[in-house]
Amino acid sequence: MRFLLVHRLDENTAEAVDPGPEFVARMGAFIEDWVGRGVLITAEGVHPSARGARVRKDRGAAIHATDGPFTEAKEVIGGFLLINAADRAEAVARARQYADVFEAVEVEVRQVVEFEDLPS
Q: Of the four, 2, 17, 64, 102, which is 20 to 30 A from 44 by CA?
């Protein structure tokens, strides 16, 4: 099964703006380990919300785009991983390992819908 791990962080912290060489080294070693064990499919960080936008459409309404930064949000998406895991419990255990790389972070775990999961 594939799972999406989305990490959120406070982008007003120094670590979010400039992660520093220690964090980059820890993350690099972490990624190499998971790639080597066949756990990690892909991983990416994202730029701060000031360089992003939100696009929203409510039922029956026009589509609206709002440029960042998203000051109303305490925590914003900092990046994501797509991983292989046998089940949700393993994915949560992996998310705990991933969270341990950070000083402070929230990691959301979501199972990816596979074609065979869809109703026939």
A: 64
Distance between CA atoms of residues 86 and 88, nearest Å: 7
pLDDT at 30: 96
How far apart are the C-alpha atoms of 120 and 118, rounded to whole Å? Answer: 6
User: What does the pLDDT average to over 50-67?
Assistant: 91
Mapped onto helix, strand or coil, the DSSP state of residue 88 is: helix
pLDDT tens sequence across 76-113: 899 999 999 999 999 999 999 999 999 899 999 999 99
Please tell me the predicted confidence (pLDDT) of residue 16.
78
Beta bridge partners of 65: 55
Strand order in the sheet with 40-45: 40-45, 76-84, 2-9, 106-111
pTM beyond 0.85: the answer is yes
